[in-house]
Amino acid sequence: AGRPEGQGEASDAGLRTIGDLARLDLATGEVTGGPPALQTLLSGLDPKFPLPVVIVQHMPKAFTGPFARRLSGLCPLEIKEAETGDMLQPGRGFVAPGGSHLVLQPERGGL
């Protein structure tokens, strides 16, 4: 989806403060056929990407761990299957486990 008319740049409206760190998150949701598009998106990011990346891919539980490891091997970012207590960090990606909801806990800066 494109940006609404008149919004050429990111605005402060999307910023949240966690501790002393003001940041945006990159979140994407994918469906069947999404993995190739996701791989293209992630492989184009700079290894020093300044934001955490949260990925929700419609997949069975047994596939999301291997999928995260595959993405991590193909992309410049470290990507892993999300676990309770993971802390969102710039340049790291987290794949939601299959069959689970992913809850962001902004007060803790993590999952």
Structural class designation = alpha/beta
Largest sheet: 4 strands, parallel
- Fraction in beta strands: 15-25%
Question: How would you write the strand order of the largest sheet?
Answer: 3-4-6-5
**Contiguous runs where pLDDT drops below 50 for at least 5 residues:** 1-23
Q: Mean pLDDT score, rounded?
A: 76
* Strand/helix succession: EEEHEHEE
How many distinct beta strands?
Answer: 6
State Rg.
14 Å
The portion of residues assigned to helices is 10-25%
* N-to-C CA distance: 26 Å
Number of helices: 2
Topology summary:
Blueprint: E1 16-18, E2 21-23, E3 26-30, H1 34-43, E4 53-57, H2 61-74, E5 78-81, E6 92-95
Question: What are the key terms here?
Answer:
111 residues; 2 helices; disordered N terminus; alpha/beta; 22% strand
Describe, in plain words, how this protein is organized in 3D.
The chain is of the alpha/beta class. The protein has helices at residues 34-43, 61-74; strands at residues 16-18, 21-23, 26-30, 53-57, 78-81, 92-95. Strands 3-4-6-5 form a four-stranded parallel sheet, with helices on one face. It has a two-stranded antiparallel sheet with strand order 1-2. The chain is globular. Mean pLDDT is 76; it is low at 1-23.
